[in-house]
Write a structure and sequence with these properties.
Radius of gyration: 20 Å
Shape: globular
Oligomer: single chain
Strand content: under 5%
Order of helices and strands: HHHHHHHEEHH
Largest sheet: 2 strands, antiparallel
Strand order of the largest sheet: 1-2
Number of strands: 2
Length: 173
């Protein structure tokens, strides 16, 4: 519930404006930490939702914070580094999954990603998806070049999976 400000209340002094601004910044940072906790704690299952996306849409709906483009990439990167999948980030931020992929393109990540299924995946899988989406945008009228480059990326991804399995399994090549 909000109330209208009276003209005398509307104008802040510089020190009060600075304090208010710092409180907003702190609240926004805390919001993304809470989102990470909700995701990793699988809050949607505890509340009876069938998916993270459904949970975000039903619980937060239009009140989800829409981020300015310049800030979105940083928040997306932070959420990704904490292990959220592209779809989970999209649901939490209200951004399209392709937008999240574009924001993540070129951002290397060695962290594991936790899918909405609770399983952990190497980050290279998501990076592959982002690179393929970037190729589709870069070569919309040249499917042969795009397909050849996608094939090379897929081979590189498969090689990284083998390496990941060997490292995780304690095997030597």
């Amino acid at each position: 519930m909000t109330r209208e400000l009276q003209p005398a209340e509307a104008a802040l002094r510089a020190d009060a404006a600075r304090t208010l601004t710092e409180q907003i910044k702190t609240s926004v940072e805390a919001l993304w930490e809470l989102i990470q906790r909700a995701y990793h704690g699988r809050a949607w299952t505890a509340l009876g939702y069938s998916s993270w996306s459904e949970y975000c849409a039903e619980e937060f709906g239009s009140s989800r914070l829409r981020l300015p483009r310049g800030e979105r990439a940083e928040v997306v990167s932070i959420l990704r580094e904490s292990g959220l999948s592209i779809r989970a980030i999209a649901a939490a931020t209200g951004a399209d999954a392709k937008t999240v992929q574009r924001d993540l393109a070129g951002v290397g990540s060695s962290h594991a990603i936790t899918g909405t299924d609770g399983k952990t995946y190497p980050a290279s899988r998501a990076r592959l998806q982002a690179e393929i989406a970037a190729l589709a945008a870069q070569y919309p009228d040249d499917p042969a070049t795009r397909d050849a480059m996608e094939f090379g990326l897929t081979l590189r991804y498969q090689d990284s999976l083998v390496t990941h399995a060997v490292i995780e399994g304690g095997m030597s090549v």
